[in-house]
Amino acid sequence: MSKDFRKLIQESVKQKQLHPEDIPSLDLYMDQVIALMSEHLGEDGEKEPLTRTMIHNYSKAGVISPIKGKKYSREQILQMLAVYSLKNLLSISQIKRILNGVEQSGAGEKGLENCFHTQLERRANINAQLMDSIDAIVHDNDMKLGTPAAAMSVLLTIADLNNTLTSLASAITQECFPELPDTKKKR
Fold this sequence. Notes:
64% of the residues lie in helices and 2% in strands. It has helices spanning 3-13, 30-41, 52-60, 74-86, 92-104, 108-140, 148-176, and strands at residues 28-29, 71-72. A two-stranded antiparallel sheet has the order 1-2. This is DUF1836 domain-containing protein.
């Protein structure tokens, strides 16, 4: 595999992360929540990873717990982090089912925090395994980026892998978080 391809892969597995211990135990105003998310998740030169409109929409849709006053609790911030983490993989209604399922299990803030800690503990090992797997896939399939057509072929392969993982995530959601009887129920 070319050094350029390997470098792209290495950069791709380095994602910023907001650790639960980085979330203050004090309630935060919306601007403080946005600043916290931007500091830990935002990319250089990129817009905020979470906007006021997004927060309002998630609250209105019942994806995050209703706000009390003008401040967001640590649990609500963890819910927003879950939405941010899952929104490119699952629909908002699926994410709502997941968060409702975690809430109904009685896990609450500690349960959400434990989910993120578990994911973070697995991350380094999974990234190393992913690098090895991608290396093997690229080598075994003679994938190169030398021409626009070759690069497009690689992109189509990545899209296919992404679609497979998205289907798997949807199947897990369906299996582990059944549809709520009253889908209009607020959190």
